[in-house]
Automatic annotation (TrEMBL):
It comes from the Bacteria. InterPro entries: DUF1599 (IPR011630). This is DUF1599 domain-containing protein. Residues 3-63, 96-157 form the Nucleotide modification associated domain. It holds the Pfam family DUF1599.
Amino acid sequence: MKKTRDYGTAWRILRPSSITDQIFIKAQRIRTLEEKKVSKVGDDIKGEYIGIINYCIIAMIQLELDDSAATELEPSIVEVNFDQKVTETKELMFAKNHDYGEAWRDMRVSSLTDLILMKILRVKQIEDNQGQTEASEGVKANYQDMMNYAIFALIKLS
C-alpha cells in the first residue's frame, strides 16, 4: 500500500505475462543468491520473497480486472482487492496445510524456491496456450501456490 501511495497503480499497465516474468526474475535471483551467497546489488533474499508475494497478489488482481478498467485505481480499491486476495490465499494455505500435514516445515528453503520456479514455468506455459488447459488448476491457483511457498520460505528464514 505504501508503494501504491508513492507510485499509484502503474502496475496496471503490465500484461499478465509481464507480471509472471517479474516473478520469474525475483525467483531466479533468489536461486542465484542461494547458490552464490553473494549479492552485488545489496537486496536480500527476504526482500525478493516479499516481492514475489506482492507480484502474485498484483497478478491475481489483474486477472479479475477488465482490460478496459481504469489504469489508475484509488488506493482504497487496491486495498480491498489486496486484502481479498490475501484472505483467499491464506484460507487455501490453511486447507492445504491440513491436508498435507504442514510438510513444508521439513522442506529446505531452496526446495521452496524451486517449487516457485516450477509454478512460474507452468503459468508461462498456460499463458503461451492462451489460457487453455486440459487438466491444470489454472493460473490463479499457481499464483496462490507461489505466494504460499514464498510465505513458507520467509517463515523458515525468520
